[in-house]
Amino acid sequence: MSLVVRGALWIGLFLGVAVAPLVFAVIGFSGLGRGFATEFSAALGFVGLALMGLEFALVARFRAVAAPFGTDALVQFHREMGLVGLVFVLVHVAISAPWDLVVRPFAEDTPARVRWALLSTIALLALVVSSLWRKRLRLSYEAWHALHAVLAVVVIVAALMHALLVDHYLDAAWKRVLWIVMSAAFLTLLVWVRIGKPLALRRRPWTVERVTPERGRTTTLTLRADGHPGFRFAPGQYAWFAIGRSPFSLSKHPFSLSSSGEAAGVVEVSIKALGDFTSTVADLDVGTRAYLDGPHGVFSPDLYEGPGFCLVAGGVGVTPMISILRAFAERGDRRPVVALIANRSWAEVTFREELERLAFRPDVRVVHALDEPPPGWAGETGRVSGDMLRRHLPPGYERWQFFVCGAGPMMDAMEDALVALGVAPGRIHTERFNWV
């Protein structure tokens, strides 16, 4: 089954689950004595709750779900659907809430359904605010991750309790059972991510075998599978890492794998010190235990056929690119590759020496672009642009596959520039980890 067909099926399933609770609710309900605004509000509430539950599925790291779209697109959709669900819920609350009771939730005459609704709404607002403005709130990634998981459970459980207690639409026992089963399914996804998957990872540990400093405040960790064969991966893919901590820890970090993927029992990951956990990587000891959830992602030339490949990297975005170049060299793949590597200065070019060695291959061309070039620099300067791409791409580049990894604004600019150069959007692939 092609990725396009699989993607269409997943989209259909998503839409079906999103509206199914509404269909279940209206079956056998007359709605007598309830006006349009009330019915409309109830509909928004049901769909909003379903969307909140589906958020678990979008980030449960199921490879079959992510394959047709890419993980970064799936996470972006998760964020957008979260906002859509929030709007639905807020409109539902604005229309239906008994405000005289909402303002005094602990009064004796305030029904439990109001308290549950208030708890769910407050938790949902806190979840969205902490995600959109995590950095402004100075929440570390680890603290946000734990808070996000707890708030998500509160939102679903409290909303379900509210729906069951309202009783207008869930008066029949079979409707209550369906809602409970659906909510349990959503929570089961969370249990799988937090308990089931860590249990599986616990049986497949890795050990830090070498810690290698690189240019550009980057450290490469070499990890060896401990008591199991490890895994193979396509060059350019990534994994979630729990290094020096339990596989049950709430926070795992996604990093691109920098080795070629040709050897299953050993992997390398190159991590730039940018804050939080990444600033501690250089101080890790050899022998540190690690757990890897992977491989994930569709950012790989193995998944897209083309007569040639263009790799555009900004800063540490070179990590998946070096994986691709290493794989091509080890396989003897002679398809042409043009790699444009952008950095602030020559001293900060991660993997500089290896890139220079790879550039001696007749099928590989490496172009460096520097913001602050050294004296006598004859190469490219400034940001990678459409004109720069045009200078270094051969005729027929429109049929190539293009891979871009770096800061968000840089990737946005590259997508626009490549489309302007006549490259079809389906041939442009990005890898984004700045999800929160």
Features:
alpha/beta; six-stranded antiparallel beta sheet; six-stranded parallel beta sheet; 17% strand; elongated; FNR_nucleotide-bd; membrane
Provide a compact summary of the structure:
The protein has about 425 residues and is α/β, with parallel strands linked by helices.
Question: Would you mind describing this structure in some detail?
Answer:
It is found in: Membrane. One of its GO terms (cellular component) is membrane. One of its GO terms (molecular function) is oxidoreductase activity. Keywords: Membrane, Transmembrane, Transmembrane helix. With 436 residues, the protein is of the alpha/beta class. Helix content is 46%, strand content 17%. The chain has a 6-stranded antiparallel sheet with strand order 4-3-6-1-2-5. It has a 6-stranded parallel sheet with strand order 10-9-8-7-11-12, with helices on both faces. Strand 8 (337-343), helix 10 (352-358) and strand 9 form a beta-alpha-beta unit. The longest helix is centred in the middle third of the chain and has 30 residues, at 173-202. The radius of gyration is 25 Å and the shape is elongated. The model has no long low-confidence stretch (mean pLDDT 87).
